[in-house]
Amino acid sequence: MSRVVMVLAVIIFAVPLASRAAVINYGNSPDVPPGITFTNVMESSGTDPVPLYGPPSYFTTGMDFDPTGFVASATDAAGDITDGQLNFGVGDTPGGGVRAINTISLFEAGDFTLAGVGTVATQAFAGAIIRVTVTEINGVAVAPVVLAPSNASIGFNLISNPGIVQPWSLGTTINVDAQLPVGQDATKVEVSIDNQLIANSEAASLAFMAKKEFIINVSTIPGVPEPASFALFAAAGAVACLGRRRRM
User: Fold this and answer.
1) Phi and psi at residue 227, to the nearest 5°
2) What are the tens digits of pLDDT across the range 47-93?
3) For 124, which of 43, 112, 130, 160 could close a Cys bridge (C-beta 3.0–4.6 Å)?
């Protein structure tokens, strides 16, 4: 096991269990037709006391977080990892008509500092992964359908990226609609997003990584037929087929 990995393992297991088990529930977003609704917005951490993301601000199709304490920092041959998780549900706003969920995207940004004396082993990393589970299709509850996740990461080192308060950003999108059969549209999903910041340092060096911006955006497909409409369509189709048979 490398020295860096050993240091990170010590840091992770040294975090008090009470901190690692902490959860903050920010509740539900306001209902603002014709947008979408976010439910049970919760954050937790396996390494640090929460909040890391902080409470969200809502807009018609998304959430905007402005983290103030989502940081990984290391000096003098130490390492640090900060892990955060965001969970929430997504569905159509009551009164806004049934809308299918097309894509779920995240964008995050912040700054990093790599300074002092060292090699490429003085590093700063950021990463994110989105996992989505479909719980409702065409307005009808279904057994959970787990979709393929989407992830992104970025990294810097002291030799290639030295400097103080340097900008970084990353983004990733999961295409919900593309992962379902034609005609099956997701109208409710559960989302889990994992984020990590990692800082590794050497003797006489500093590695620092901070997340300052975090935005979730959901694109939708309007006009998905409601369950009652599907029944009417099915009945109309059956009548049409019967008519064709009688004429044959």
Assistant:
1) -55, -40
2) 999 999 999 999 988 999 999 999 999 999 999 999 999 999 999 76
3) 112
